[in-house]
Specification:
4-stranded antiparallel sheet, 9 helices, alpha+beta, 253 residues
């Protein structure tokens, strides 16, 4: 028996799919159920063979839901994309599923980044007498996590927009005028960008760390949170003093 050519195999699969909308929906539900069961089996295998590894346990816990959603979306998209013409609704649904797939892939990438960052945090215990280095790492990892989420979100949105032909044409025009746009954006967001760079400077130059005791604006308190644009100081009387990051790079404290 001669093997089928890949294109011929695809034609056979397409011909085997039902042309009735209701039957096609039943096939879609069946494919989604099979994909969900496969995802559950993968999770069980990871938990069984990973043993006591904290990395695998964290990855399984964080990635269980996005993996299931990803496999179900892939199964449904493949079935609908290969199905014969059943109406104009099919193209719209496939387009929407493609956009959701990009978002779920970004979700999985963020999960992997979070697992790596949790692994870095687990190596440094802050519940010790000399925890200066541990608090420094904690501050830096927290900032990196926020940057990671922001970058992944921007890339995911860009990927979604590039699936539309009109957006690709607009992207070409934007790239052609990127120099002018960057100058305009830099002038418009000068204060915000200054705070972002100041936040990165605070985290990576070890100027302040989470849980440091500081006296700022004539108030005594502890550094509670360091973000990209502001720092939260937990004052002695249980108030929170929120200061821009540039305050700690331009004003003595």
């Amino acid at each position: 028996m001669t093997p089928l050519h890949p294109f011929a195999a695809a034609d056979v699969v397409t011909a085997a799919l039902p042309r009735s909308t209701w039957l096609l929906l039943l096939v879609v539900v069946g494919a989604a159920l099979v994909a969900w069961l496969v995802a559950v089996a993968i999770g069980a295998l990871v938990r069984r063979f990973a043993g006591p590894s904290p990395v695998a346990a964290d990855l399984s816990r964080r990635g269980r839901r996005p993996l299931r959603v990803l496999l179900v979306l892939l199964a449904v998209t493949l079935v609908l994309d290969a199905a014969p013409g059943v109406g104009d609704w099919r193209d719209v649904v496939v387009r929407v599923l493609g956009l959701v797939l990009i978002g779920v892939v970004a979700w999985l990438i963020a999960v992997a980044a979070f697992v790596v960052e949790d692994l870095a945090l687990a190596r440094y215990d802050v519940d010790v007498d000399d925890n200066r280095h541990a608090r420094r790492v904690r501050t830096q990892v927290t900032l990196i996590r926020r940057l990671t989420v922001a970058v992944i979100a921007v890339l995911a949105i860009a990927g979604m927009l590039l699936t539309f032909p009109a957006a690709r044409a607009a992207g070409t025009s934007i790239l052609a005028s990127a120099g002018v746009l960057s100058v305009v954006a830099g002038l418009a967001a000068q204060t915000s960008l200054a705070n972002v760079f100041a936040g990165m400077q605070l985290a990576f130059t070890d100027a302040i760390r989470v849980d440091d005791v500081v006296v700022v604006e004539d108030e005594w308190g502890r550094i509670e949170e360091i973000t990209l644009t502001y720092v939260v100081v937990h004052v002695w009387d249980d108030r929170r003093l929120v200061l821009p990051s540039t305050h700690f790079t331009t004003t003595p404290f």
